[in-house]
């Protein structure tokens, strides 16, 4: 995980959803002892405006300045002890925030900004950043509240979920929360054929062993209370259900494009859209 001297970077756009992300990021910065950097990206191409020298009366720059001032006031009121800075950058929001991940403890974005459509729960910028950035990306829905004292993390037998586990344990430690580790498995197709004998109890025991082997090393080095939830279900269904009683849902991402480029995996994408709490997508 990135050193704690690196800032938490949060995307600011002047929307209510963006302010929800600022509030979440301010709380996390206070818990983890990180500085907070507010970044507002001016995207002229989105408005069909060819780049031109910025002037004092430039409406896009003025909007960015107002959005940052409002966000900074929210941080100073909510978490006065957090060191906060702000910057305006011109470019494509998704690309700028993705690249900023290289110098951040984590990237925090709202689920949908000013450019979102009403029927889309998670906007294209949030999805792109979560699918492309290396390191943790937290997507925050409006109306979130830390009230449950539980961090949920999705696990499987792959090495890719180690980064998600590391992040989940760090979040639980700084919050004083417990962890609910969800391991979802599905029956093999041929197990549903009655003419083929299949030891389902043996399958369940094998899946339980995989979950235990993944969590035992973390239990040995952490005093965080861990509860295992090994269920026969689709991972999306299990994780979304668990998110209803969580303050944060943490998932890894195994997504790869046709040419090997990093993309957001199908489970992570579905969880982003349907989770009832903030979601952290963590890749190594």
UniProtKB/TrEMBL annotation:
InterPro entries named among the record's database cross-references: Rossmann-like_a/b/a_fold (IPR014729), Universal_stress_UspA (IPR006015), UspA (IPR006016)
Family matches, as SUPFAM superfamilies: Adenine nucleotide alpha hydrolases-like
Start and end residues of each UspA domain: 4-141, 151-283
Pfam families found in the cross-reference section: Usp (PF00582)
Superkingdom of this protein's organism: Bacteria
Family the entry assigns: Belongs to the universal stress protein A family.
PANTHER family in the cross-refs: STRESS RESPONSE PROTEIN NHAX, UNIVERSAL STRESS PROTEIN UP12
Name of this protein: Universal stress protein
Organism: Planotetraspora thailandica
